[in-house]
């Protein structure tokens, strides 16, 4: 059972049908290079912690938000992360004063993203006798999948910055995440 939920967690984050997660990860690590991988791991783990908290609360039916709002808030988190990137782009490598803001944002946005999968996971866990182990396995799979995606992004970024500046990479990746996120946000405005 542990292996099945671990794989489910990895598939959840690496599934191209739910590319909003990948867009968020791209926006989240757009301003980082491979040399700053430790900071990125902390950032991604903060997101996973937030995701795990909400997933657990929703699974135990402590907290729920209507799906229409969750589907709207997820692209909003991507847009806000991209806007933070664009705001910090001019002083990208002069100071690191936004690190605490980024970690707090990743944690809070993880809370929102965790609600996106909670209904499906809740239905799977109702068939299980123990909820703790499958929930842990799912979240570990989620973290492993995220770190794999982030590693790919950082490697591609390192190749890119060999020819161009880190600011150019950050701007390109941020813009690449912002455009589809804005489209999703507009499409998902609750009526």
UniProtKB/TrEMBL annotation:
One family name in Pfam for this protein: HupE_UreJ_2
Keywords: Membrane, Transmembrane, Transmembrane helix
Domain of life: Bacteria
Entry's transmembrane regions: 40-60, 67-88, 100-121, 142-163, 169-186
InterPro entries the record matches: Put_HupE_UreJ (IPR032809)
Record-given protein name: Putative membrane protein
């Amino acid at each position: 059972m542990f292996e099945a939920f671990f794989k489910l967690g990895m598939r959840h984050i690496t599934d191209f049908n739910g590319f909003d997660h990948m867009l968020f990860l791209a926006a989240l690590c757009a301003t980082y290079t491979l040399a700053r991988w430790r900071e990125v791991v902390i950032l991604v783990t903060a997101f996973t912690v937030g995701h795990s908290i909400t997933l657990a609360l929703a699974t135990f039916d402590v907290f729920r938000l209507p799906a229409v709002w969750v589907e709207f808030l997820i692209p909003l988190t991507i847009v806000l992360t991209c806007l933070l990137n664009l705001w910090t782009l001019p002083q990208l490598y002069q100071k690191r004063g936004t690190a605490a803001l980024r970690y707090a944002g990743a944690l809070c946005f993880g809370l929102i993203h965790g609600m996106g999968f909670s209904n499906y996971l809740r239905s799977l866990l109702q068939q299980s006798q123990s909820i703790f182990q499958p929930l842990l396995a799912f979240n570990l799979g989620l973290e492993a999948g995220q770190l794999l995606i982030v590693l790919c992004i950082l490697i591609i970024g390192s190749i890119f910055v060999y020819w161009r500046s880190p600011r150019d990479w950050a701007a390109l990746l941020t813009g690449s995440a912002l455009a589809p996120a804005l489209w999703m946000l507009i499409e998902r405005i609750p009526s």
